[in-house]
Here is the input.
Amino acid sequence: MIKNPLGRIPQYGPGCNPRLLDKVIHFLVEDERRKLSALREKLREFEAHFALTTGEFQQHFNSGALGDNMDFFEWDGIADTAARLKEKLAALQEADCVG
Here is the structure.
């Protein structure tokens, strides 16, 4: 079962404009895609700087092998945020909410 990435979907009355709602949803999805793109760029910067893929980094970081460098906490947070956003967009696509 797919978790609803948008939370609870309200019921709209007969005066609801479906085209407007469609435009709003697509605007919000495109905004999320732009955010994901920016996060991916930041991840590439970390990967180049530390010569590790994000997956390799997270394995080492989560095992405690890398220490407490603040850059590592930022990298880990960005990676987690990007993963959640990617899942959200995938769920929307699977639910046929976006193309």
